[in-house]
Automatic annotation (TrEMBL):
<dbReference type="Pfam" id="PF00756">
    <property type="entry name" value="Esterase"/>
</dbReference>
<dbReference type="InterPro" id="IPR000801">
    <property type="entry name" value="Esterase-like"/>
</dbReference>
<dbReference type="InterPro" id="IPR050583">
    <property type="entry name" value="Mycobacterial_A85_antigen"/>
</dbReference>
<dbReference type="InterPro" id="IPR029058">
    <property type="entry name" value="AB_hydrolase_fold"/>
</dbReference>
<protein>
    <recommendedName>
        <fullName>Esterase</fullName>
    </recommendedName>
</protein>
Amino acid sequence: MHIEQLSHWSGELGREMRLNRYGHNGMPIVVFPSSGGTHSEYYDFGMIDVCKDYIESGKVQFFTLTSIDSESWLHESKPAHDRALTHEAYDRYVISEAIPYIKHKTGWFDPMMTTGCSLGAYHALNFLLRHPDVFQTTVALSGVYDVRYFVGDYGNDHLVYENSPSDYIWNQNDAWFMDRYRSADIIICTGLGDWEQDGLPSYFTLKEAFEEKQIPAWFDEWGKDVSHDWIWWRRQMPYYLEKLFY
């Protein structure tokens, strides 16, 4: 398997940003880490290994990003608006710096895929919904999609609202976005077991909104034995890759 440990300067964030590449060809899959995770987390927890058949056959290649969640949504002493401002800087980094860098490395100029587990799943879905011209496929595993989970009641703060998928999706009626949502491959998965309860309210809210707005997506609930843990995410990711890249 082709592996590269990469780093590039982010003017948006004012620092070097590290990322790893796994694979030599195929659709780039942009991976966002879980809470407190690093750009190496996906490899360290065996996710790359369970996806190796798709990587080595050249169907996909993974780019595992660094997050700044500890400075944004997880920074509990920051006001909600300031956390959203920090996340907006990360959004600009991903779209205006990381994605062009990945395009340069791969020669891939079509829409890409996102994925992530836990907090990474939130990012995976949020980035697709906000930038459906850049991303047209996502596999979001065990996410929380209501930003109140991180910041509490955010009142009328529009910047926070714009990063809370289970809120803003209800008011998204723009034809440009809706056409792209309806042509995307969106997979949102949750278990029903231990430590999954925090994400279930926003999961079912999203499911209701997608159905009402006639956005085709696969909302997939696994059993009550399926917990919020890597042992299940290692089973789920190759299962969905098989459906997407058979």
